[in-house]
Amino acid sequence: MASRNPARPLSPHLQVYKWGPHMLVSILHRATGSGMATVGSLLLVWWLAAIASGDQAYATFVDVFTTDAGGLNILGYVIGIGLTWSLLQHMMTGIRHLVMDTGAGFELKRNRMGARATILASTLLTVAFWLYMGMK
Amino acid sequence: MGSGTPVGRVRGLGSAKHGTQHWWQQRLTAGANIFLMAWLMVAVARMPAYDYASVHLWLQSSWAAIPMALLILSVFYHFRLGLQVVIEDYMHGESRVVTMILLNLFTFTLGGIALFAILKVAFSGAPA
């Protein structure tokens, strides 16, 4: 690999651009995807392995995220709501990407609207999901 | 793409001979994941209870075990492709190679455990 001279000038990077919703959902797509791929997949596999291992292993899993009374503890809520919102945000920006892959939605106004819509949709769906869970 | 045979250009094969494979498979699994993850959210929300017996009984059914196994395959392949892009963006030189190997280890180890767990529960003897 060619040797790098740290003193050489760099081209302007992200900091010169004014932040907009398209940049926010772009980095959110990557952040939520990376988070789910690591934390989310580990927890999903732990859950599945615990179901396969027996009721004691399952109790250990449940115990981490619940209080003695049976409800979710703080970690349970943070992880639960965090993963729900991450999944839905990644799903909404993913659908936006699929639409943009067809060449649609690149006009400034429509692009900005689409980016905002992903956040609105993921947040509303997360609230709906947890309201449903709370009303059970 | 200036080089290559006409048929090679039509097939979209670049110098690495993989063409648009990575990009396209990421989209295919994305489409599958929309349905599979929507199923998982609805299935989890509609479970009657979350104690061991209820959850075990749920996963024993073919109606849960099959989509769950398909979900593991599609989602894990999707995040394997996605994290590869993240690694390619931020890691360089030797550390990129090491991280990429770790990514494969992570994906296949977790995926193997998940599929085995699903099959173990699904084949554990109660009526389907």
Query: Which fold name corresponds to the CATH topology of chain B?
Result: 3 helical TM bundles of succinate and fumarate reductases
Elements of chain A, N to C (H/E): HHHH
Given the C-alpha coordinates, what overall shape of chain A results?
extended
Q: Tell me the quaternary state.
A: heterodimer
What is the overall shape of chain B?
elongated
Question: In angstroms, what separates the terminal alpha carbons of chain A?
Answer: 59 Å
Share in helix of chain B: over 70%
CATH architecture designation of chain A: Up-down Bundle
Q: Largest sheet of chain B at a glance?
A: none
The CATH architecture term of chain B is Up-down Bundle
CATH superfamily of chain A: Fumarate reductase/succinate dehydrogenase, transmembrane subunit
**How many DSSP E strands of chain B?**
0
Structural class of the helix and strand makeup of chain A? mainly alpha
State mean pLDDT of chain B (0 to 100 scale): 91
Low-confidence spans of chain A: none
CATH topology of chain A: 3 helical TM bundles of succinate and fumarate reductases
| Residue fraction in strands of chain A | under 5%
Number of domains of chain A: 1
The pair of chains with the biggest contact is: A-B, 31 and 31 residues
Task: Note the topology.
The complex is a heterodimer of chains A (136) and B (128).
Chain A: H1 21-53, H2 55-65, H3 74-101, H4 108-135
Helix pairs in contact in A: 1-2, 1-3, 1-4, 3-4
Chain B: H1 6-10, H2 21-46, H3 52-60, H4 62-90, H5 93-122
Helix pairs in contact in B: 2-4, 4-5
Give a quick rundown of the structure.
The complex is a heterodimer of chains A (136) and B (128). Chain A is mainly α.
What does this structure look like?
The complex is a heterodimer of chains A (136) and B (128). Chain A contains four helices and no strands. With 136 residues, chain A is mainly alpha-helical. Chain A has a single domain (21-135), classed as Fumarate reductase/succinate dehydrogenase, transmembrane subunit (3 helical TM bundles of succinate and fumarate reductases, Up-down Bundle), CATH 1.20.1300.10. In chain A, α1 (21-53) runs parallel beside α4 (108-135). The model of chain A has no long low-confidence stretch (mean pLDDT 93). Chain B has 128 residues and is mainly alpha-helical. Chain B is built from five helices and no strands. Chain B has helices at residues 6-10, 21-46, 52-60, 62-90, 93-122. Chain B is elongated, with a radius of gyration of 19 Å. The mean pLDDT of chain B is 91. The A-B interface holds A 1, 30, 33-34, 36-37, 41-42, 44-45, 48-49, 51-55, 58-59, 62, 84, 87, 91, 94-95, 97-98, 101, 129, 132-133 and B 27, 30-31, 33-34, 37, 41, 45, 50, 52-53, 55-56, 59, 68, 75-76, 79, 82-83, 86, 92-93, 110, 113-114, 116-118, 120-121. Chain B: Its main location: membrane. Chain B: It comes from Sphingomonas aerolata.
